[in-house]
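Researcher: I'd like a structural prediction for the single chain below. Treat it as a standalone chain; there are no partners to consider.
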Amino acid sequence: MKIRKVTIHNINSLRLQETIRFDDPPLSQAGLFAITGDTGAGKTTILDAITLALYGKVHRNKQVLEVMSYGAVESLAEVEFEVQGEVYRSKWNIWRAHRREDGNILGPERELSRWNPRKGAFEIIAEKIRDADTMVEEVTGLDYDRFCRSVMLSQGDFAAFLKASERDRSDLLERITGTEVYTRISIAAYERHKLEQQRLAGLEKQLEALEVMGEEAAAALKQELKENKSAAEAERQALDQVRRQLAWLQKTEELSLQRRN
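Model: Treating it as a single chain, here is the predicted structure.
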């Protein structure tokens, strides 16, 4: 999933309508950039707009109806993103009745559209809250919790990570990113590989101890040995894959710490 554009209109302290394009220079040419500014300037509001547009939620224990800027009569968050060559646009908005400052807050409305290159326009594929939630998860492969753990790290979780001891940091990183599943897979793959290796060694000893055996029995035993070798190799490959994934996560953690130091 690649975010191409974010549009913000009257959300929290950002009482304006602005579009941030990540697919245009200079952001499109930057491997890494920082969102900086004074407290209350609206840094986290940009992240709020992304989760609002995609999932209709705010990752700060805040009610979504509270995000409308003071004195505004409408709020909108819109994200354009790309997944496997397909471009989508997800939208969220609320408004005050009769567009009056004292009107009751209405909504929210949700909408998910997909770009049709032949028509040169976005086509709506979901415009109900539940349908939009389902389609966003299907398209991105991420539900709200996974998105927040893998794409966007909240300030509270990041501060806890920086202050954690070296012993606790690994467990905290697993809890934040959801990588505990890789640890369980790694342990299970290792145990299964060990078991298959033991079975293979036992069969090889049995084969060596046999002096005379019929062709049919020998063929059956060889077939069993071949199958166990295949199973052991498959488990070894699975274990190697999990080890590569864990190494990638550890490297990501090191790079993250290097950027902060």
